[in-house]
């Protein structure tokens, strides 16, 4: 297949592009800068210059492709309405040219959209009052194309997609531990975070493009729920720091932002059993704690 990809030069994107190319697919990927274009070319992809706000460029990329994979997501987290608007506009622009073709269209969301406090499945509805509610509209915009002749599906990624040169939630946690001298968690730290290695996520995206039935919701979680206390304790051992339990009020000022404090306290275990059965996905990468102990998280310069 000729796959048009957005977000191909981001954090998870290069692994996905490499996986698609290695599987024999041709990849064209959105590039908003010379550096992004060079990165994509080094992976064997053809850059397609433009941005998420350039809807005509998104349409032309989708029109020329056999499949579309939408991973890019951006904006100001202090303005979730704008992030929601931009994502939905991009999804509609990408999906429009695919209507009536039966071509695959895979979009990305996160498991943080799901209800808190219990193990959620692919069939559970997202929580409109949750921490990541701003991603729900994008899920629905993509899945709406399933009724319009598109093999549309959504991959919900775990909050930590770990691997080398990560710049997401976990590196920020490590940076905070370094700067404050304590590796902290909220309450008893028993809240659970799903996790997936970047290379396993890349395989899942490829399988979704190749096989996922129209209307599928898929969970990119190799581990259903790693306790946050175990994450903080692993960071503490690696940096030779003490751990500390924080109240929610203390966490709001200790971590980078109140949003991050809420995220670090989120209890959101998920099941990926249906995804594995549907696509034959079988994650093989290191666990999150293994990556923390043996990867570059505790040796790399602070982000």
Key terms for this structure?
single chain; 303 residues; alpha/beta; Rossmann fold; UDP-galactose 4-epimerase, domain 1; seven-stranded parallel β-sheet; three-stranded mixed β-sheet; 12 helices; 39% helix; 20% strand; globular; aldehyde dehydrogenase (NAD+) activity
Describe this protein's structure.
There is one protein chain. The protein has 303 residues and is an alpha/beta fold. It has two domains: 187 residues, Rossmann fold; 85 residues, UDP-galactose 4-epimerase, domain 1. The chain has a seven-stranded parallel β-sheet, sandwiched between helices. A three-stranded mixed β-sheet has the order 7-9-11. The longest helix has 16 residues. 48% of the residues are buried. The model has no long low-confidence stretch (mean pLDDT 95). It holds the Pfam family Epimerase.
Quick summary of this structure?
The protein is of the alpha/beta class and about 300 residues long.
């Amino acid at each position: 297949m000729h796959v048009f990809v957005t977000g191909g030069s981001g954090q998870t994107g290069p692994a996905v592009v490499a996986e698609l190319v290695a599987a024999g697919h041709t990849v064209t990927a959105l590039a908003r800068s010379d550096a992004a274009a060079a990165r994509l070319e080094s992976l064997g992809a053809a850059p397609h210059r433009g941005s998420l706000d350039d809807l005509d460029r998104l349409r032309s990329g989708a029109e020329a492709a056999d499949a579309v994979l939408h991973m890019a997501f951006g904006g100001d987290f202090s303005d979730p309405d704008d992030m929601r608007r931009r994502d939905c506009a991009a999804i509609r622009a990408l999906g429009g040219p695919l209507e009536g073709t039966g071509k695959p269209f895979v979009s990305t969301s996160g498991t943080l959209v799901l209800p808190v406090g219990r193990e959620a499945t692919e069939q559970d509805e997202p929580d409109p009052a949750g921490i990541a509610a701003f991603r729900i509209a994008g899920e629905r915009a993509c899945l709406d194309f399933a009724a319009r002749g598109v093999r549309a599906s959504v991959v919900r990624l775990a909050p930590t997609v770990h691997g080398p040169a990560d710049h997401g939630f976990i590196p920020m946690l490590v940076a905070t531990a370094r700067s404050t001298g304590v590796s902290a968690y909220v309450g008893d730290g028993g809240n659970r975070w799903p996790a997936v290695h970047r290379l396993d996520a890349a395989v899942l995206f490829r399988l979704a493009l190749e096989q996922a039935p129209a209307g599928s919701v898929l969970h990119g979680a190799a581990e259903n729920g790693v306790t946050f206390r175990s994450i903080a304790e692993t960071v503490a051992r690696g940096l030779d720091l003490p751990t500390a339990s924080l109240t929610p009020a203390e966490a709001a000022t200790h971590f980078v932002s109140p949003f991050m404090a809420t995220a670090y306290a989120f209890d959101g275990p998920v099941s990926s059993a249906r995804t594995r059965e549907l696509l034959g996905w079988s994650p093989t990468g290191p666990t999150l704690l293994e990556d923390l102990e043996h990867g570059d998280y505790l040796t790399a310069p602070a982000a």
